[in-house]
Queue: 3 jobs
Job 1
Amino acid sequence: MDTPRSRTTRSPVQLAALVIGVVFLVAGVLGFIPGITTDYGDLRFAGHGSGAHLLGVFQVSILHNIVHLLFGVAGVLLARSWSGARNFLIAGGAIYLLLWIYGMLVGHDSPANFVPLNAADNWLHLGLAAVMLALGLVLGRRPVTTSGH
């Protein structure tokens, strides 16, 4: 006897938001793991004085890792609906674009560099902005329906 399968189908924009959300969650967790985060003993809550680096490249702090975790949770939750996924990708992309601009304008040793950000973070943020905005805008277009006339 066949039983109906409960299958959740996701649109491409929902799948993209879910994948990006999971990537943010993984990055946030990895930022708290010694070894994967080098100079872990230099991890600070915030500020340019945090000397820890995710994968030995990206400067991180506790605040930075928490932001990644929050973005991840938002992506996973908002991926449950088409509009939520689209909004996550576009708004998140815009936020990362602003963060890239901020990182380019603020000196790495400046007290205003509270996240903290280094050159690798800045270019990663530009890439994230481009990918998230492109996915949100391209995959988030409403399908065109025809009436069949």
Note: The chain has four helices and three strands.
Job 2
Amino acid sequence: MSGAAVIVALRVAASPEAAFAAFTRDIGLWWQSHPLFQLSRRGDGTLRFDPAGPNGRLVTRFADGEEWEIGRVRHWLPGERLAFGWRLPSFAADQATEVDVRFEPVGAETRVTVEHRGWDAIPQRHVARHGFELVLFQRRLGEHWRGLLKAMAAGL
């Protein structure tokens, strides 16, 4: 996976195991669509890990019932690390990014760090990049991930 990454961290008032469960089990509850970063023109649908676990995949179900596999789980270590592929329906077969999430205890809290990498392999002209130069795109995507982590934390 290429090197350009968006890295966002947020402390949440939960144990690493609880934060991991909220991220994985409850992703369909806290995931919020964003106009710039929708999975497709139909929005984001409802995300879930199916099946939950090391051999799982992240999928979404759109309102019309169609499902899309966003990516396969690469690491599933409850309370420690989660990594999975991230592909939009508009990506070519050879295009993909990766999301790596770490859960680190910090006192009574957990630092959840999301690293979403590989965007330098997606051309600036691609609809997912909206024509943004890489640095600006990464900044905007980082804002989106920060909002998502805040929504996850609110549900803890």
Note: The beta strands are 5-12, 46-49, 57-61, 67-77, 81-86, 97-106, 109-117.
Job 3
Amino acid sequence: MSAKLQGGGALVVVVGPSGAGKDSVMGFAAQHFSDCHDVHFVRRVITRPSDAGGEVHESVSEDEFVEMQKDGAFAVFWDAHGLKYGIPAAVLEHVRGGMTAIVNGSRGALPAFRNAFGDIAVVVITAETPVLAKRLAERGRESEEEVLRRLSRQAPDVTSGPDVSIIDNSGRLDVAGNRFVEVVERLRVKADHAA
């Protein structure tokens, strides 16, 4: 797993289907690394209300997002599910400065992440289809029809390559969370050796 950007830091892009529990796995890891000043969990900018549930994010209107995009506020940005998502440009400086930054990304945006950051580590959080369906239904953000459409959506295949780790989160959170922590720890060790 390379994931080395010039300067010794690393970018971990977490992707996977809706309902796989990406936020939960990242939250587990955030608690583990809460005292580590070299690990940064990135807050995304999203055109979604701040009280919509799910991840903590910076909520902006679509017009505000477009203005921020024009002003170069984002290292990476993309559209998905009728929303706009942005990764603050400051993350580039964090990674160049030797930090390990962790972002909730999108499979479709991986080329943009690689273009902006160079080598990245991709962590695919996945779960069995019945588990995904149950979690999406419990979330209550979408109708049954929207859940089925989301589950049937064909996403780019990112499950192969030297920079890809796959974590199944169908079972207990601590199992998937500890696997994710191990991936991040390996990257931190590489960053220390490169410094």
Note: Residues 9 and 98 are 4 Å apart (CA to CA).
